[in-house]
Amino acid sequence: MPCFRxxxxxxxxxxxxxxxxxxxxxxxxxxxxxxCQSAHxxxxxxxxxxxxxxxxxxxxxxxxxxxxxxxTRDAAPADLVxxxxxxVPAGDGDLxxxxxxxxxxxxxxxxxx
Length: 113
Description:
Elements: E1 21-25, E2 28-32, H1 34-39, E3 57-60, E4 63-66, E5 72-74, H2 77-83, H3 93-106
């Protein structure tokens, strides 16, 4: 999953805690890369808990849960449309295109047709 702000993709992790942060935006799980964490006030772009106001939310199995207070609610896909946020694509077409382009660069082939 790419960073929701800049589109950067995670690389293979090193040992220890990941520098990437997780959050929920328009009832969808998102990641924030280390660069965007330092360059932007990224927490303002995330959903917050209705009970405690925390942005430490996780979205799983159709529910959004606050990691600070434990409050859960159903994820509402209709909110995505109302908010005007872009949906996360269901398929991995972008990733397969990125992989094809990377293979072409590494193998010094022309563009895929």
